[in-house]
Amino acid sequence: MRRVGTWWGRRTLHARLSLLVTGAVALAVLVVAGLAWAAVAEIQDHQLQNDLTTDATTIAADPAQWLATGPVVEEEHRGGFGPPRRFRRDAGPRWQILDAQGVVRNKAVNALPVTPAAREIAAGRRVRAEEQVTVGAVSYQMVTVPISGGGAVQVAVNRTPGDRTLVVFAIALLACCAVGIAGAAVLGRTVARAGLRPVQRLTGAVEEVAVTMDLTRPIPINGADEIARLAGSVNTLLTAIDTARTAQRTLVEDAGHELRTPLTSIRTNIELLLEVERHPELAHRLPPEDRTKLLHDLDAQVTELATLTTELVELARDETTREDVEPLDLTAVTQAALTRVRIRAPGLTFTTSLTPCAVQGRPGELERMILNVLDNAAKWSPAGATVHTGLRTDETGHCELTVTDTGPGIAEADRPHIFDRFYRATAARSMPGSGLGLAIVAQTAEQHGGTVRVEPNVPHGTRVIIRLPTTDGTADAIA
Fold it and tell me: Which of 100, 156, 97, 155 is nearest to 125 (CA)?
């Protein structure tokens, strides 16, 4: 069985379809031919039995008349290479009459055998018998019926002509089956070739894309059948791959550009320190206070580089490395993020108005999202300012998280771009940061089926609003 499966698996789809069509047609033809042969045989046997029964009943109704007539015998002359030969045969069915003791009362050429069943019928112990007997080398179908007052009538007919007819009919059916199966094989190849032609075109188009790597040229779609749907799915897949490849290239290019700046600064500072170490006589050119400042700059740049690397990893994180989705209270996640930001910004006041809000999500990612928003608010808030965090369930059944600061605000021209990767407003370019924090916020919100937006906080400042589905609607929305 395994060998058959292996052999079948090595066949092409074209060959398998051809074999399946041929096999199905062959099976149907053979079944129909077998049923036709069986039906003809049954009809012929039924007609033979009816004829024998009619003849036997007719003879049994007036046996004296038939005894006086006797069987009709005709002569048949057969020629060949030798002299003509003469044969005697019955004209029509053969019959004989038995008395009550089972003795044949009429004389006939090659008398029919008197079987035990015939004797029982002649003695009145049975009413009918159907048997197949042999006279000489010829097979006969025989029917025995009783005669009123005792005795029986045997009527038999030669089965050879009927059997020969069935054999000829069977040969004709087999010939027709052979022709039909051969035609089915040809038709199967034609059907398979015609049916798979769109698949071959689609395969060629996909192979061309694989060779050229041109993901921008869609595969032509003809019709609205399953192949057209498959081509549409392939086009969708190519578009997704092209989008992912473009995003990956953009991320790498932007990351390379952003990493180059801190790395260049770190390299310059380290080279200066090494130069002083190699030439102590030049140490006076780098006073202790400048050396200390330089080391502090190095520490800040390394910290910025580590932050940038972490954020890049967060943006490029593979689905298999992410946390599992679980039910959680967004209030607890928000409080955890507030605890961390209070340590980072001790000069600010963080107020809250939090109401319980249940969601399903990844707690680590949600905490980092909220922390990024709070860090951004803390970075732009003046010393002693207040940052307010609110959490509630709005009228649409979504959890709404709001972080409000009293900083300088975001220019209207910059608002549409603040969630783009590596985008930094003109006023922010002198501040530390990578331009990825709010991009991570937008990505995390989207992956949890939510949205994020910014709006001005009148009279000054910024309000960031994050909306996430509650537990009832989150399970199917999380990416």
Answer: 100
The answer to whether residues 363 and 323 touch, using CB atoms and an 8 Å cutoff, is yes
- Report how far residue 152's alpha carbon sits from residue 114's, in angstroms, rounded to the nearest whole number: 10
Residue 297 to residue 291: CA distance in whole angstroms: 10
Instruction: Give the burial string for 427-439 (b: 16+ CB within 10 Å, else e).
Output: ebeeeebbbbbbb
Say what percent of the chain tops pLDDT 90: 16
Which residues, in sequence order, are bridge partners of residue 190?
none
Give the list of residues 6+ apart from residue 181 with CB closer than 8 angstroms, or none: 22, 25, 26, 29
Q: Cβ contacts of residue 372 below 8 Å, gap of 6+?
A: 437, 438, 440, 441
Output the six-digit token pair for 234: 């392939």
Count of CB atoms situated within 10 Å of the CB of 333 = 24
Query: Which residue type sits at 405?
Result: D
- The mean per-residue pLDDT over the stretch 394-413 comes to 87
> What is the per-residue pLDDT across 414-443, written as a single tens digit (0 to 9) for each?
777 788 766 665 555 445 555 677 888 888
Which residue did the predictor score with more confidence, 53 or 204? Answer: 53
Torsion sign, CA atoms 363, 365, 370, 372 = positive
